[in-house]
Amino acid sequence: MPKSSNLPARVTVQNIAEYAGVSIGAVSSVLNNRHLERRISAETVLKIREAASKLGYMPNISARRLRSRASSRNSIVLALVTSFEAPIPLINHFIFALRNAAGRHASLANGTVSVMVEMFSAGRLRDLPGILTGDHFNAAMILNTTAEDDQFLQRSHLPYPAVLVNRSVPGYAAVFEDGLAGGRAAAILTGARRVQLGVLHGTPLTQITQARVDSFLRAASATLGQQPAEIPTENLSAEGGYQAMRAFLRSGRRLDGLYAVSDALALGAYQALKEFDQLIPRDIAVLGVGDYDTGPYFDPPLASVGVCHRAMADKASELLLEQLAHPGAPRLQVAMPVVENMRASASPAKGR
After folding, report:
1. I need a surface site. Which of 110, 177, 179, 198 has the fewest CB within 10 A?
2. pLDDT digit string (tens) for 58-103?
3. Whole-model pTM?
4. Three-class SS string for the chain?
5. Which strand ranges, in their side-by-side order, compose the sheet holding 303-307?
């Protein structure tokens, strides 16, 4: 099919059948992930999926939903797929980036583009309607998956362009934080002459938060000769950070350096430290992740180390729209650099 600067004509099931040299029924079964029950051979499944990818097939969502005769050839729905547990400030960056990128992209200039948010419970991505069939959206950016969700993605074939954020799964385009973020956090805290360190994190750990925690523990242990304390919480909100930090302090343990793997957890930790008369940064330095818009307005302003979420959102949007414009192109995986935003919360204490 010739490439055009405008949105290409919608590829049909018949187009794929003719290209692959198979029946329309076989194509329909494979695209709806019903090939196993129809006993279609693995060779035929692969041939159909390669043809659909090369031709740039996208399910006609409007036709499936409305079942009308109205033409919907130039209607595309882009989805931001994320868990209910995800921090809202993080999601906002990606919604705006996807909307803005779609408005600028030449291949979508003559089409109607919608951006939607689809949400799932952590670990239950497989239950999201349309995730395997593409009858809810034409392309997706997928965020905040757990290890169980990542295993589901690795076992599955999504019949539409997709970009994963902050995880790397073979066969998918992805953008993710450089794995050095946790190690860099440890270096900042030990450089501020903090020697009793702890890391506040959620459970279960996602791929990227696991990397942050592991690299932090390794780097801190290598420098200080002792393992930092782990402070886990099941609730990833500020409330979860507060309760976990409060329980830690009530046990009689103390820290002089804390790495919170999200800014929401850091906010909760601030409140617990205040209740126990632990001043930041005099008694304890606190370092967050992600530099959310609220970071500068903490008291004191929260230092952070990690990827710039705006830059990550822009790159993920770019990769997704390039897949739409150039079907069959390589699915790139891009490591985003770690940036530091040093503020008062991580300053060395006076006299140290």
Report:
1. 110
2. 877 655 555 444 444 567 889 999 998 777 777 888 989 988 888 7
3. 0.76
4. CCCCCCCCCCCCHHHHHHHHCCCHHHHHHHHCCCCCCCCCCHHHHHHHHHHHHHHCCCCCHHHHHHCCCCCCCCEEEEEEEEECCCCHHHHHHHHHHHHHHHHHCHHHCCCEEEEEEEEECCCCHHHCCCCCCCCCCCEEEECCCEHHHHHHHHHCCCCCCEEEECCCCCCCEEEEECCCHHHHHHHHHHHCCCCCEEEEEECCCEHHHHHHHHHHHHHHHHHHCCCCEEEEECCCCHHHHHHHHHHHHHCCCCCCEEEECCHHHHHHHHHHHHHCCCCCCCCCEEEECCCCCCHHHCCCCCEEEEECHHHHHHHHHHHHHHHHHCCCCCCCEEEECEEEECCHHHCCCCCC
5. 229-233, 197-202, 257-260, 285-288, 303-307, 338-341
Per CATH, the homologous superfamily of domain 62-177+309-336 is: Response regulator (3.40.50.2300)
> What residues does 304 pair with on adjacent strands?
288, 341
Which residues does 92 contact at the CB level (< 8 Å), separation at least 6? none
Q: Pairing relation of β-strands 197-202 and 229-233?
A: parallel
Q: Which residues of the chain have pLDDT under 70?
A: 1-8, 61-74, 106-111, 291, 349-352
- Lookup: tokens for 283: 């008694």
146-160: string of b/e by CB count within 10 Å (b at 16+)? beebbebbeeebbbb
Half-sphere exposure of 90 (CA within 13 A, CB side): 21
Q: Where in the chain is the domain with CATH 3.40.50.2300?
A: 62-177+309-336, 181-308+340-346
Query: In the CATH scheme, what is the code of domain 181-308+340-346?
Result: 3.40.50.2300
CB 307 within 8 A of CB 181: yes
